[in-house]
Amino acid sequence: MEEKVGNLHYGGAVCLAVLDGVGISSNTTGNAFEQANTPNLDCLMREYPMLSLQASGESVGVAVGDQGNSEIGHYAMGSGQIIKQGALMVDEAVKSGRIFEGDTWRGLVEAVKNQNSTLHFIGIFSDGNVHSNVSHLYSMLARAKDEGVQRVRIHILLDGRDVPATSALEYVDDLERILTDYNVDGVDYRIASGGGRTFVTADRYWSDPAVVERGWHAHVLGDARAFSSAREAIETYRTEKNDIQDQDLPPFTIYENNQPVGAINDGDSVVYYDFRADRAIEFAEAMTFHDFDKFDRQRVPQVYYVGMVEYDQERHIPEHTLVEPVQIDNTLAEFLVKNDVSRFVVSQSIKFGHVTFYFNGNKTGKFSEELEEYVNVPGKSGEVWQFPWMKSDEITDVLVDKISSRSHKSCLANFPNGDMVGHTSNFEASIIAMEAIDLALGRIMQAIDEVGGVLLVTADHGNVEELYYLDENGQLALEGDKPKLKTSHTTNPVPFIIYDNTENRDKYKLKAQNDDFGLSNIAATVANLHGLLPPPEWRESLIELN
What we know:
nine-stranded mixed beta sheet, 16 helices, alpha/beta, single chain, 20 strands
């Protein structure tokens, strides 16, 4: 048990509500947060203690200027530390050459050369640096060629989410130029298949197994819709469905002489080059699990399967990895459970892993079956602009019930709306998403007041507050006569608000604004509100006890 500090005691829960993808920006252009009708959030930001927290760049363990994301945001909140994240970790391994010196890379090269088989690369195809970076792919392609690998096939998951919405052809053309230079003296490197990342292969938390199944047909079986090139596929789909974004493009397979050029077969080797786990782990399960029931795989090739990192450190998925990940211990969840603080966690399935797996430091299960309860509210991500309220009402139903019952001392909830709808850049839908969140907050605030609890409101990164690109003068950037859509996250700070109407609010104060404060300061703050002294390795609390 940790040392108790202060004299804070709440009759109800200490509740942390994460408004996924809701950042703060003073610019009103393209700002759905600013233009939505949000009386509860307005009240919270106007009348209650508030700080802005850094949620991007070095504050969350990524490169200076890089946007934050849900994975690293929840890592930071849950760990209480700034931990070097995937992009930086892989960058260092590639630049130092360490990635090519281990047994895994050597095993890949030896396997394809000894068996005269094919080396495949699969991953999100952009330099968004959130899930992957094409520079890592290009480094591996160059190394494979230098080491005498004759045949490579690349399966591209088009982004349009962490990069401009219709930028895919720029990346495809760059890759095709590289491959043209490589393809001499019997070398045969080609794009084999692809599709938009939200529609093909890169599902998360098995919220929609059909996404992975479409990828299986495109990459493994080689029987998706046939085209002669990736460019032809992209241009055709854009013609058939006006205004479609890259992330939503259907699957395609490249054919030559009525045969797929790069189906995955026995004896091949496969590298999934994403460094972020949530959109990579399901395909790894499909490729490597004997007992698999999400869809009919029809055939399962026996391959040497490799991940950029270990996507699940508890289950060791996949078995072979190129870069060793950082171990995260003594997270907030584990710390609270060790101190007999009961926990309740809830989100919609598309973000459930963020408040469990990532928040808990790459831990899949609970720290205590007795003290913890997790609720996964089912719901597909789909075309969320059509239902931008998503499952906010059901999340709130469950959370309010738990708060009112006083069954748990600590609650954690994630509302996905701001991020998932923000990624569509549909402005009207994003306004509705924010208003749905606001309605949920009003209900939660009432429940907190009724039991004498405290509510912390924050976000993991920005998104919905900046749906259009701006030019160097802060004016709306245009593509033709339309706003240039920004589907990516932002580097804006996020709010941190303490809603506390109990007598405890006179026993502490929020510290003065400090630009060094970030998401990793939240863990110690939660510990303090539970009357606990946080571990010394955590970043400082955002409150001072009187």
